[in-house]
Amino acid sequence: MYGASKFYNSEERNLIKLINKRLLIKNLLAHNDENSFYDKKRKLNLSYKEGKAKFLKHICALSNSNPKNNSYIVIGVDDADSKIIGVDFFDDSKIQNLINAYLTNPPIVQYENIPFPHLPDDKVVGLVTIRSNKGLTSLRKNIWKYYGGAVFFRDGSMSMPKVFDI
């Protein structure tokens, strides 16, 4: 899409980006079970310590397990059948604050609200894009049942702690 700015106005470029994000989400749901670069969630619950801790664990694990490429969490998807059900619009500033407060060497994380035509106007699919900072990401401090210093990796579809012998 190099040079596309010469042919499209900003509204058209935004539409192209939106369509590409929808295609990315559909491809992840259609062709990939959860793995080292992809996870799906029904919803985010960052109002409670447990929800925050589990989200941080997945961010940490995806960053560490796929350091050379982007990883994704798709939010608003039924875990059993990958059906898109949508979630409420979400402000990503909560995510940025959480990541900066709890992670050492935090990855670059972007949250986007992606509308889908079949969803009601008040529902979107959340797309979390995680880009590693090329170093190991770990928890900076305790949260819920996870200890500060913990490092997580993906083992298939599971985010598991890794113990390092020193």
Oligomer: single chain
- The structural class is alpha+beta
Q: Counting H and I runs of at least 4 residues, what is the number of helices?
A: 3
N-end to C-end Cα span:
47 Å
What integer value in Å does the Rg equal?
A: 17 Å
Percent of residues in beta strands: 15-25%
Unreliable parts:
none
Mean pLDDT across residues: 90
Q: Count the beta strands.
A: 9
Order of helices and strands: HEHEEHEEEEEE
Main sheet properties: 5 strands, mixed
Shape: globular
| Helix percentage range | 25-40%
Textual characterization of the structure:
The chain has about 170 residues and is of the alpha+beta class. The chain is about 30% helix and about 25% strand. The protein has three helices and nine strands, in the order H-E-H-E-E-H-E-E-E-E-E-E. It has helices spanning about 10-30, 50-65, 95-100, and strands at about 40, 70-75, 85-90, 105, 110-115, 125-130, 140, 150-155, 160. The longest helix has 22 residues, at about 10-30. The protein starts with 9 loop residues before the first helix and ends with a strand.
